[in-house]
Amino acid sequence: MYSIGQISLLSNLSTHTIRAWERRHCVVEPLRSKGGTRRYTDAHLRRFQLLKAAVEAGSRIGDIANLNDDTIADLSGYARAPMSDRTDRGDDSPPLVIDQSAVDEIIDAAVCLDVIRAERALNVQYRVLGSTAFSRQLCPALLTQIGSMWEAGQVMISSEHLVSACIKRMLLRSFDAQEPRPNAPKVMFSTPDEEQHELGLLIAAECAYGAGAQVINLGPQMPAEAVATAAEKLRPKAVALSSIHVPPGTQRAYLVELRAKLDLQTEIWIGGRQALKGVDGCLVLSLEEMAGRIETWAQASM
């Protein structure tokens, strides 16, 4: 459940606009706490995101307030994905397919160095796809494509950096609004002290939240001793690390030190392009593998 302030933060709508749209156009019907305070669901938040995108694309709020989300998504210029989130589907359901036109729209905005349009497109996709598909599928697909385009000389490095910065800001806003359920398994995120790149860490953390974890984000470049001290206090089920550019020897020394300082019951996960395999007591996991492990823990804690 979200407060109106959290809805405002994540939808980029003012609280005044949210109240006005509810009062004048009945766009959503919020729930109420025992004290009468507005409370919103993920579906409410997704609808506000789509409405805002449609209005920015030229629609009038009075004309679209009574339309369903699929129609509003079409008016905003984004095709609704056939499935909203992996957690909403049965095991036999087909995999969610990322809309290539949405990826192209984000990249086109980045090429034009249009930060507002890029952030709006990312925000809409986050709400249309859900946090799980966004972090596991859209972000890797988007970053891979624009990275390949930069290597081929088709886009400027500034465009690639713009996409990374927009994703980072959006995920940080998402973390601010997260309220994990009681007894959710804790997973602590960081990078080795020589790893400056934080984006992979944030994408993994968002994926973990979508799988049911309580995310503890320490940020990048944390010494092994500092991570171990935090883990001793907070008692996470796992410490997850992202490694993109750390040399193998340095990475091994870091992991060995961290493993020696952590409780043996606390798992160490490592992911990323340079994730080092073969270190005793450390698991190299993909996003899917990490999410599956968290989902098993979350179900056991219910």
Please sum up the structure shown.
With 302 residues, the chain is an alpha/beta fold.
Q: What is the element layout, followed by pairings?
A:
Blueprint: H1 4-11, H2 15-25, E1 31-32, E2 38-39, H3 42-56, H4 61-64, H5 69-76, H6 100-111, H7 115-129, H8 131-151, H9 157-177, E3 186-190, H10 199-211, E4 214-217, H11 224-234, E5 238-242, H12 248-261, E6 267-271, E7 282-284, H13 287-300
Parallel strand pairs: 3-4, 3-5, 5-6, 6-7
Antiparallel strand pairs: 1-2
Helix pairs in contact: 1-9, 3-5, 3-7, 6-7, 6-9, 7-8, 7-9, 8-9, 8-10, 9-10, 10-13, 11-12
What's the rounded overall pLDDT mean? 84
Shape: globular
- Low-confidence parts: 79-95
Strand order of the largest sheet: 4-3-5-6-7
CATH top level label of the largest domain: Alpha Beta
What CATH architecture of the largest domain do you see?
A: 3-Layer(aba) Sandwich
**CATH 4th-level superfamily of the largest domain:** Cobalamin-binding domain
Number of domains: 3
What structural category characterises the helix and strand content? alpha/beta
Number of helices: 13
Approximate strand percentage: 5-15%
Order of H and E elements: HHEEHHHHHHHEHEHEHEEH
The end-to-end distance, rounded to whole angstroms, is 18 Å
CATH topology of the largest domain: Rossmann fold
Q: Helix proportion of residues, in percent?
A: 55-70%
